[in-house]
Amino acid sequence: MTKSRFILHYLLLNKYAYLFAIFCILIVNWLQVEIPRYIQQAIDLFGDQSEASRQELFGYVEWVVGLSVVMVVFRILSRMYALNPGRITEAALKNDLFYKLNRLPNSFHKGFGSGKLISIINNDLNGIRLFYGIGFLQLFNVIFALSLTPIWMWRISPALTLYSIIPILLAFVVFRIGFRKMRALHGERLTRLQDLSEQLMNYLSGIDLIKNQQMDTWVLNEIEQVNQRLLTCTMQITRIQTFIMPVLDYANNLMKVLILGLGGYFLLQQNLTLGEITAFLSYSVLLALPLMHLGRIATVYQMGMVSIDSVLTILNSTIPEQDMALQTPADLTALGQGTLTVSHLAYQYPDGDSAVLHDISFELTPGKKVGILGSIGAGKSTLVNCLNHHLDVAPGMIHWNGRDITTLARQDWRALVRTITQEPYLFSNTIEQNVRFGSTDLAKSEVDQVLQLSQFAEDIARFQDGDQTLVGEKGIMLSGGQKQRLSIARALLSPSDLIIMDNVLSAVDYDTERKILGGLLDRISHQSVLIVSHRISALEEMDEILVLEAGAIVARGDHHSLLRSSAYYKATWDLQQNETEAVT
Ligand SMILES: Nc1ncnc2c1ncn2[C@@H]1O[C@H](COP(=O)(O)OP(=O)(O)OP(=O)(O)O)[C@@H](O)[C@H]1O
């Protein structure tokens, strides 16, 4: 989407409100130039004592009062109808951005820091709201005021109008120079705000580490540097603004001096009346006001343009074609209960030097349970992220019921495959809501059942508020093992055809692990399961265990055959047996 299409698209969203606002702004500006005309005629009647003149004078006063009331009404309407669209656009844009962010693949989120995204959603969207609200209102105010007022002035005295316009032209020249400089600075300022937000997000996520390692001074220094760059940029903008505003003010006063000086001369020459000079002075104020607003409009316009650029970097990011084509519910049901076939899977990270996975092949028929064992850095998580299509795998390597998963939309694929990761993410909500995760239609008894299965129910019974306990930000109130069990409960609540568990039981003891796995495998006997673990005790019951070393499968078989065929497996088993004995 180009910038002009973006502007038009969101303008059209409120087209009727804007059209009515333009009509109201036009009426307000027309009344603004009309009212001085009645004042002028009233003043010119001051010297005349006749009854007819008195009647005429009262008539003009009534007109002025009446028109002023009408003007106030239209001014209120113009503000309502011009400012509200700014809010509506902001809300619509937020929805569009959230929709897009939700559909964009992981590769986008890896390259685009969350701090930067938050800054765009807060600061840039604020800039866009002002652009579509106050910016629109002031723009039309200025257009109408600068076009109508000189015409009404010209009708009184063309010569005085031409002289009065000289200071305005001078002010415009100064304004244009400052305007160009400010545009670049506004862009820089929003980038600096994004940098600061990114930096803060980074440090706040690692606040425990910063405190533990006493890194406070270093962090404060880093933040101060980014903050200083933001301040320097903001000060430059303020400096230009504080220079331009007095210049515009000076132009306005110069115009008044010219009107009074030259107007007085024309009065003496009897070319102008006192009423006409008074009207002319009123018009000079009407010209000065939009002139004063030019600075504000320029800021709103420049911030709006820069903000639109930032937002477009997200809106123009492409969602992979296959992710756009969603299956119908019927097609998705037909895809269920399939066989996962992995053939000669290889994977290299885009920024990596060499392949992390080599020639991985295995099959997961419906209901089969497969375990993956491997040392640290063997490529287990990479394999999981290839299988659930978080990573962009090459076509032809992973099939589900004969269908290449790279031809399926990720959203559809994840309806079939549920992954429980080793770092569960919890929302700042109650335990029950964290299990439900939006599945509000499911009965409470189902939630209780999955909590029982994941061996979390006993812990919950000890909490004062039970499953209504608030878990705090990222589940800060829960221990590592409790978080893991909650995320297992969450994965079990809604149906899926394949469950992948990536080291999810690392933070629970052996006994709890055995209980969880026993209950879990009973409940999901019809579902395919892939469990990744460092612990053989978690894999013992699997139909097949793949031993991964440096990204390749070096041994495979069930627990008993591997004890005989794989020295690594046997050594790991013996070591872990000793650990278990030491613990019990
Ligand atoms: N995003 C990435 N970019 C580049 N290389 C990566 C990335 N993530 C992981 N790697 C590399 O891939 C290799 C395998 O990592 P992976 O996380 O898959 O191992 P793992 O077996 O899951 O390890 P662990 O048991 O410690 O979780 C490692 O050498 C790691 O450095």
Automatic annotation (TrEMBL):
Subcellular location as annotated: Cell membrane
Residue ranges crossing the lipid bilayer per the database entry: 12-31, 57-77, 130-154, 160-179, 247-268, 274-295
Record keywords, A-Z: ATP-binding, Cell membrane, Membrane, Nucleotide-binding, Transmembrane, Transmembrane helix, Transport
ABC transmembrane type-1 domain boundaries: 19-303
Domain ABC transporter positions: 340-575
UniProt key word Nucleotide-binding: yes
Chief site of localization: membrane
SUPFAM superfamilies named in the record: ABC transporter transmembrane region, P-loop containing nucleoside triphosphate hydrolases
SMART domains found in the cross-reference section: AAA
A GO MF label: ATP binding
InterPro entries membership: AAA+_ATPase (IPR003593), ABC1_TM_dom (IPR011527), ABC1_TM_sf (IPR036640), ABC_transporter-like_ATP-bd (IPR003439), ABC_transporter-like_CS (IPR017871), P-loop_NTPase (IPR027417), Type_1_exporter (IPR039421)
PROSITE patterns (UniProt xref): ABC_TM1F (PS50929), ABC_TRANSPORTER_1 (PS00211), ABC_TRANSPORTER_2 (PS50893)
Listed GO CC annotations: plasma membrane
Membrane topology, record value: Multi-pass membrane protein
Keyword Cytoplasm attributed: no
Protein's name in the database: ABC transporter, ATP-binding protein
Species annotation: Reinekea forsetii
Taxonomic path: Bacteria, Pseudomonadati, Pseudomonadota, Gammaproteobacteria, Oceanospirillales
